[in-house]
């Protein structure tokens, strides 16, 4: 075979990834279950580089140089298994199958194990950046063996987004590590968007400002620490006017957020690993709440919304806006700190040895959460790879401490005026909980011991203790 790399699955993502590879001088074998897609890719973009089209999967495999690298970019789930099952008998020892779909990392672990038993390398690879990223430079998060990365890493690094000359692609770790990190990335994306939405809501209701006016506030914020793709596109969405009605676009969109499930996966796994990713969880639940139209209507009818717009006095407008900015930044620091804790917990659980600083580096470009702030995260982990929490890294500690008064004023204002800010509020609660010397968890331990003899540990002695609550309340030591 003559092609360096192959892509099977040529819907929007696979098509754009194949074009990106071809544009970077790789000879790309292309295949799709329905041949028409393969034909249209070559007809429309054949001049962008070298494509080697095949109608059958067997011819596609034959057109590849050994050891073969086959990218599978099909609808995640049973489709991926179907393609793998068809591919495996056609491959030879040492060949590499790369799944760039949005697979759950547990599926990736299962597939990796199955293919390893057949002498094949399986690379579960997170890709972020949507259609445009796939074409112009995504953030790429490959898992799998080091051997596989040595073979395909240079090709992936060539097509990834580049920031300051560094590609947004690195070998994340063995088996499911790449898809795990992609999952947490999406969870952080949920939290970041919820925080932005809460900031918008506060400005809109508090100031009585129009979406266009708020777009200008976000535009200003994008000049500072908050500079990021999500803030940038918030400006675009808020300033957009609906052609049909002449109203602000954001006012004609149904207020029910949808989800494809990666936020849910993140929260489910965090519960299993016991990582308090409260920002991501609240963001996921806020989307669920928005979708419960019937319950919302019932509650509106029962209680009314209770929000009095325009509560901020004229002389306080600037200060309030700055408070919301600081609260947004502090809450965002919490959301990312929690996300990186989750990555660390997964890394320990599955033995992946993920480098959190490098992970921050590959999110600086190409992906949805790309932001200036990720440089700071990388610096924090470079300075101390064993960092207990991002929150305590000097730069973030300062941001959170400096913003704390603003953060509190905003959460108070939200509560006073009937604005739901689950992500702002829970992030503040996390910060305050984490830094407390004594938590009321001591009382919970007492209750658990009383009703269930669950035992407790003492502050002044080793071992587990139980109080004979129903008896003479003496203490036993086990
Ligand atoms: P889709 O997720 O819409 O999948 C369509 C592709 O899957 C077509 O090529 C289709 O072939 C193929 N396919 C299916 Br469906 N079942 C198959 C089977 N049993 N055997 C062989 N091929 C099968 O495509 P997409 O939107 O390009 O996304 C591809 C992957 O990338 C997904 O896993 C997605 O989650 C992930 N992803 C998407 C984005 C994004 O922004 N869209 C971003 C990051 C990752 P056909 O043409 O013959 O029907």
From TrEMBL:
<feature type="binding site">
    <location>
        <begin position="74"/>
        <end position="76"/>
    </location>
    <ligand>
        <name>NADP(+)</name>
    </ligand>
</feature>
<feature type="binding site" description="in other chain">
    <location>
        <position position="190"/>
    </location>
    <ligand>
        <name>substrate</name>
    </ligand>
</feature>
<comment type="similarity">
    <text>Belongs to the 6-phosphogluconate dehydrogenase family.</text>
</comment>
<dbReference type="InterPro" id="IPR006114">
    <property type="entry name" value="6PGDH_C"/>
</dbReference>
<feature type="binding site">
    <location>
        <begin position="9"/>
        <end position="14"/>
    </location>
    <ligand>
        <name>NADP(+)</name>
    </ligand>
</feature>
<dbReference type="Pfam" id="PF00393">
    <property type="entry name" value="6PGD"/>
</dbReference>
<feature type="binding site" description="in other chain">
    <location>
        <position position="102"/>
    </location>
    <ligand>
        <name>substrate</name>
    </ligand>
</feature>
<keyword id="KW-0311">Gluconate utilization</keyword>
<dbReference type="Pfam" id="PF03446">
    <property type="entry name" value="NAD_binding_2"/>
</dbReference>
<dbReference type="InterPro" id="IPR013328">
    <property type="entry name" value="6PGD_dom2"/>
</dbReference>
<dbReference type="GO" id="GO:0006098">
    <property type="term" value="P:pentose-phosphate shunt"/>
</dbReference>
<keyword id="KW-0521">NADP</keyword>
<dbReference type="GO" id="GO:0019521">
    <property type="term" value="P:D-gluconate metabolic process"/>
</dbReference>
<keyword id="KW-0560">Oxidoreductase</keyword>
<feature type="binding site">
    <location>
        <position position="454"/>
    </location>
    <ligand>
        <name>substrate</name>
    </ligand>
</feature>
<feature type="binding site" description="in other chain">
    <location>
        <position position="260"/>
    </location>
    <ligand>
        <name>substrate</name>
    </ligand>
</feature>
<dbReference type="InterPro" id="IPR006113">
    <property type="entry name" value="6PGDH_Gnd/GntZ"/>
</dbReference>
<feature type="binding site">
    <location>
        <position position="448"/>
    </location>
    <ligand>
        <name>substrate</name>
    </ligand>
</feature>
<dbReference type="InterPro" id="IPR006115">
    <property type="entry name" value="6PGDH_NADP-bd"/>
</dbReference>
<feature type="active site" description="Proton donor">
    <location>
        <position position="189"/>
    </location>
</feature>
<dbReference type="InterPro" id="IPR008927">
    <property type="entry name" value="6-PGluconate_DH-like_C_sf"/>
</dbReference>
<protein>
    <recommendedName>
        <fullName>6-phosphogluconate dehydrogenase, decarboxylating</fullName>
        <ecNumber>1.1.1.44</ecNumber>
    </recommendedName>
</protein>
<dbReference type="InterPro" id="IPR006183">
    <property type="entry name" value="Pgluconate_DH"/>
</dbReference>
<feature type="domain" description="6-phosphogluconate dehydrogenase C-terminal">
    <location>
        <begin position="178"/>
        <end position="470"/>
    </location>
</feature>
<keyword id="KW-0570">Pentose shunt</keyword>
<dbReference type="GO" id="GO:0050661">
    <property type="term" value="F:NADP binding"/>
</dbReference>
<feature type="binding site">
    <location>
        <position position="102"/>
    </location>
    <ligand>
        <name>NADP(+)</name>
    </ligand>
</feature>
<feature type="binding site">
    <location>
        <begin position="32"/>
        <end position="34"/>
    </location>
    <ligand>
        <name>NADP(+)</name>
    </ligand>
</feature>
<feature type="active site" description="Proton acceptor">
    <location>
        <position position="182"/>
    </location>
</feature>
<comment type="pathway">
    <text>Carbohydrate degradation; pentose phosphate pathway; D-ribulose 5-phosphate from D-glucose 6-phosphate (oxidative stage): step 3/3.</text>
</comment>
<dbReference type="GO" id="GO:0004616">
    <property type="term" value="F:phosphogluconate dehydrogenase (decarboxylating) activity"/>
</dbReference>
<comment type="subunit">
    <text>Homodimer.</text>
</comment>
<feature type="binding site" description="in other chain">
    <location>
        <position position="287"/>
    </location>
    <ligand>
        <name>substrate</name>
    </ligand>
</feature>
<dbReference type="InterPro" id="IPR006184">
    <property type="entry name" value="6PGdom_BS"/>
</dbReference>
<feature type="binding site" description="in other chain">
    <location>
        <begin position="185"/>
        <end position="186"/>
    </location>
    <ligand>
        <name>substrate</name>
    </ligand>
</feature>
<comment type="function">
    <text>Catalyzes the oxidative decarboxylation of 6-phosphogluconate to ribulose 5-phosphate and CO(2), with concomitant reduction of NADP to NADPH.</text>
</comment>
<feature type="binding site" description="in other chain">
    <location>
        <begin position="128"/>
        <end position="130"/>
    </location>
    <ligand>
        <name>substrate</name>
    </ligand>
</feature>
<dbReference type="InterPro" id="IPR036291">
    <property type="entry name" value="NAD(P)-bd_dom_sf"/>
</dbReference>
């Amino acid at each position: 075979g003559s092609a360096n790399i192959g892509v099977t699955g040529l819907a929007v993502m696979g098509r754009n990834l194949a074009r990106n590879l071809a544009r970077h001088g790789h000879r790309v074998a292309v295949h799709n279950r329905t041949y028409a897609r393969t034909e249209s890719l070559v007809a429309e973009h054949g001049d962008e580089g070298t494509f080697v089209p095949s109608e059958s999967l067997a011819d596609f495999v034959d057109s590849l140089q050994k050891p073969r690298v086959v990218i599978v970019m099909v609808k995640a789930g049973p489709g991926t298994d179907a393609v793998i099952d068809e591919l495996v008998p056609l491959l030879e020892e040492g060949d590499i199958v790369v799944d760039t779909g949005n697979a759950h990392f547990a599926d990736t672990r299962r597939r990796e194990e199955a293919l390893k038993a057949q002498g094949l390398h399986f690379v579960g690879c997170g890709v972020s950046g949507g259609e445009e990223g796939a074409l112009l430079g995504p953030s790429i998060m490959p898992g799998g063996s080091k051997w596989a990365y040595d073979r395909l890493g240079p090709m992936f690094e060539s097509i990834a987004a580049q920031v300051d000359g560094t590609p947004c692609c690195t070998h994340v770790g063995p088996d499911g590590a790449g898809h795990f990190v992609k999952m947490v990335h999406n969870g952080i994306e949920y939290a970041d968007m919820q925080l932005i939405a809460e900031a918008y809501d506060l400005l809109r209701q508090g100031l009585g400002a129009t979406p266009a006016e708020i777009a200008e506030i976000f535009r200003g914020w994008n000049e500072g620490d908050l500079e990021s793709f999500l803030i940038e596109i918030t400006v675009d969405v808020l300033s957009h006017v609906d052609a049909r009605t002449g109203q602000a676009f954001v006012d004609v969109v149904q207020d029910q957020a949808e989800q494809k499930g990666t936020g849910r996966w993140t929260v489910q796994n965090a519960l299993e690993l016991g990582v308090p990713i409260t920002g991501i969880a609240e963001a996921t639940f806020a989307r669920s709440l928005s979708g419960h139209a019937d319950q919302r209507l019932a509650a509106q009818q029962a209680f009314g919304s209770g929000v009095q717009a325009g509560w901020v006095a004229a002389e306080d407008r600037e200060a309030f806006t700055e408070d919301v900015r600081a609260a947004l930044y502090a809450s965002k620091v919490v959301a990312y700190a929690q996300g990186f804790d989750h990555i660390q917990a997964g890394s320990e659980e599955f033995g992946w040895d993920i480098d959190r600083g490098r992970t921050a580096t590959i999110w600086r470009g190409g992906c949805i959460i790309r932001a200036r702030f990720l440089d700071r995260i990388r610096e924090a982990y470079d300075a101390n790879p064993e960092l207990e929490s991002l929150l305590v890294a000097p730069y973030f500690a300062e941001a959170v401490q400096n913003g704390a008064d603003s953060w509190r004023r905003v959460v108070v204002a939200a509560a006073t005026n009937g604005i739901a800010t689950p992500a702002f509020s829970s992030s503040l609660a996390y910060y305050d909980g984490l830094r407390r010397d004594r938590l009321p968890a001591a009382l919970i331990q007492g209750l658990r011991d009383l009703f269930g003899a669950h035992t407790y540990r003492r502050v002044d002695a080793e071992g587990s203790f139980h109080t004979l609550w129903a008896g003479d309340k003496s203490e036993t030591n086990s």
